[in-house]
């Protein structure tokens, strides 16, 4: 199977073929994969070199000139390093663009902390108006990249990862999807690539499982529909996110403010582990493996 | 050098009055007026943009990157008719569109919001690339920075990229009032030139010298004019 990043390269090339407004800015990363688009559209693909402030600002300049820019590099260099450029050159200038990252929280754990970006979604949460997509499969990545580019002049972040679920699911680019129905009045929201692990972790438990591939705007109505127990008028929700633990707790809390509710936010810890190794070992270290998730979810619901 | 174009009632001689409307002061510091002469020459004789073409795809773009102390900029825009003179006295007020750093979404003719230094030139690179990609080869893109603003490393990313890729529609005016704490003689123009820019350094209060430098041919290369002004 191709990776999300491979699929992004093919998809953005097709989008550029179809629409002369679409432009692509990169900073060396993924240059080889994007060779097709670079050759076919030399005027609309800009490789700025290893210059990430310029990557974001020049992308905003393309938008000011009337184009629909797609910007791509690793998450740590797309959101964290040039964060003020993201804040000002898109937000404050009032222009739109599509930021497509790869690398996620620890796709390349042997590369160490410099290539980990668990805080990208939380950072974007400090800014108004960003749509955030977190696909869990290459098919979903393709659908969400297409939706992002087609979204007028919106500001959209697409968080690609090397981690994927076994199969892609149909999505509409806005709502959560119920993938398992429980009767206990408790719900787990699994975001993007953690779905398969969440399904394994909750096998046999009486829980509703929602699958989220778009987390901003947050599907508050969908969460209320799935999580509020109609008999008790209460809700118990566990969020499992592949980035900083608790990133969406505030959004879920607002969504459930109409009823008494309990929330547990699971995800990547903030502390630096100073470990290399494999992604699965980092899952376990952050409590995101199936056994840890089952333990933590069960304990929360029993308490 | 006080030429006025047809339809524009205000001349260079009126600029001090328009600045006083904003500040309430009759005299202005050198820092407040350091950008005035380059701005005036650009809007009066160089830039192909008017209030009527302020949204036209083929207009020249002027990006004020050095957003601090924008009184001269607002005065010139008002003098050229981009917005009413009546806006000027509100300068900096809660309900005024004219802040101490400009906001492109609030002021007609303002191409970028600025205030945080080192954003205009990298954005200008993108605007120039985007216009070229759309076949708009006529419009020139101008960015005005301060000399100390070039301390920001983001500028080096833009200067190097634009120079090495021969982005000929990009122009920079560095208003040099010697405000950088760490500087060496001639280093401003040299930084651009080493990356392949066409570079000139002129007296930033001499309108004819500015005009000649602004309009000097620079085929296939971006162009920088370092305008030395009083401090």
From TrEMBL, chain A:
Q: Name one Pfam family in it.
A: Transket_pyr
Which part of the chain is the Transketolase-like pyrimidine-binding domain?
2-166
Residues in the signal sequence? none
Matching entries from SUPFAM superfamilies are given as: Thiamin diphosphate-binding fold (THDP-binding), TK C-terminal domain-like
SMART domains referenced in this protein's UniProt entry, alphabetically: Transket_pyr
Report the InterPro entries cross-referenced here.
Answer: PDH/Transketolase (IPR051157), THDP-binding (IPR029061), Transketo_C/PFOR_II (IPR009014), Transketolase-like_Pyr-bd (IPR005475)
**Superkingdom per UniProt:** Bacteria
Report the protein name in the record. Answer: Transketolase
UniProt source species? Streptomyces wadayamensis
Automatic annotation (TrEMBL), chain B:
Secretion signal span: none
Give one Pfam family, short name only.
Answer: Transketolase_N
The molecular function GO annotations come to: magnesium ion binding
InterPro entries tied to this protein: THDP-binding (IPR029061), Transketolase_N (IPR005474)
- Alphabetical list of PANTHER family matching this protein: TRANSKETOLASE, TRANSKETOLASE N-TERMINAL SECTION-RELATED
Q: Which domain of life is it from?
A: Bacteria
Cite the Transketolase N-terminal domain residue spans from the record.
25-217
Q: Upper taxonomic classification of the species? A: Bacteria, Bacillati, Actinomycetota, Actinomycetes, Kitasatosporales
What is this protein's name? Transketolase
């Amino acid at each position: 199977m191709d990776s999300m990043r491979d699929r992004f390269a093919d998809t953005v090339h097709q989008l550029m073929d179809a629409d002369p407004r679409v432009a692509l800015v990169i900073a060396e990363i993924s240059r080889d994969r994007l060779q097709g688009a670079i050759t076919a559209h030399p005027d609309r693909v800009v490789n700025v070199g290893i210059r990430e402030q310029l990557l974001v600002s020049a992308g905003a300049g393309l938008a000011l000139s009337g184009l629909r820019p797609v910007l791509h590099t690793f998450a740590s260099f797309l959101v964290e390093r040039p964060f003020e450029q993201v804040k000002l050159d898109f937000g404050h200038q009032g222009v739109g663009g599509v930021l497509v990252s790869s690398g996620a929280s620890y796709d390349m754990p042997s590369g160490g902390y410099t290539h980990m970006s668990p805080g990208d979604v939380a950072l974007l949460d400090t800014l108004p108006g960003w749509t955030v997509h977190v696909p869990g499969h290459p098919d979903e990545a393709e659908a969400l990249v297409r939706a992002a580019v087609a979204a007028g002049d919106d500001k959209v972040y697409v968080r690609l990862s090397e981690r994927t679920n076994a199969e892609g699911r149909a999505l509409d680019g806005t709502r959560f999807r119920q993938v398992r129905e429980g009767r206990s009045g408790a719900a787990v929201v699994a975001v993007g690539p953690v779905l398969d692990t969440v399904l394994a972790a909750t096998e046999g438990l009486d829980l509703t499982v929602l699958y989220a591939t778009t987390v901003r705007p947050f599907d508050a109505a969908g969460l209320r529909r799935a999580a509020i127990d109609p008999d008790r008028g209460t809700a118990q929700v566990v969020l499992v996110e592949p980035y900083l633990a608790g990133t969406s707790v505030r959004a879920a809390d607002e969504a459930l403010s109409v009823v008494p509710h309990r929330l547990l936010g699971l995800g990547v810890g903030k502390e630096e582990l100073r470990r290399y190794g494999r992604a699965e070992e980092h899952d376990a270290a952050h409590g995101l493996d199936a056994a840890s998730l089952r333990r933590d979810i069960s304990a929360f619901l029993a308490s | 050098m006080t030429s006025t174009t047809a339809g524009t009632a205000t001349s260079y001689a009126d600029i001090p009055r328009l600045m006083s409307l904003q500040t309430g002061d009759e005299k202005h510091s050198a820092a407040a007026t350091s950008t005035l002469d380059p701005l005036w020459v650009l809007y009066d004789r160089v830039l192909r943009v008017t209030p009527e073409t302020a949204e036209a795809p083929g207009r020249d773009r002027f990006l004020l990157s050095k957003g601090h102390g924008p009184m001269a900029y607002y005065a010139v825009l008002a003098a050229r008719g981009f917005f009413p003179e009546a806006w000027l006295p509100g300068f900096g007020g809660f309900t005024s569109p004219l802040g101490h750093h400009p906001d492109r979404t609030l002021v007609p003719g303002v191409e970028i919001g600025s205030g945080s230094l080192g954003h205009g030139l990298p954005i200008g690179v993108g605007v120039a690339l985007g216009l070229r990609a759309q076949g708009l080869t006529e419009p020139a893109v101008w960015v005005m920075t301060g000399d100390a603003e070039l301390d920001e490393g983001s500028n080096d990313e833009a200067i190097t990229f634009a120079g090495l890729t021969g982005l000929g529609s990009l122009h920079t005016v560095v208003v040099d009032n010697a405000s950088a704490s760490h500087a060496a003689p001639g280093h401003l123009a040299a930084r651009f030139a080493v990356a392949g820019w066409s570079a000139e350094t002129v007296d930033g209060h001499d309108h004819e010298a500015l005009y000649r430098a602004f309009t000097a041919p620079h085929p296939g290369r971006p162009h920088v004019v370092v305008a030395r002004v009083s401090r």
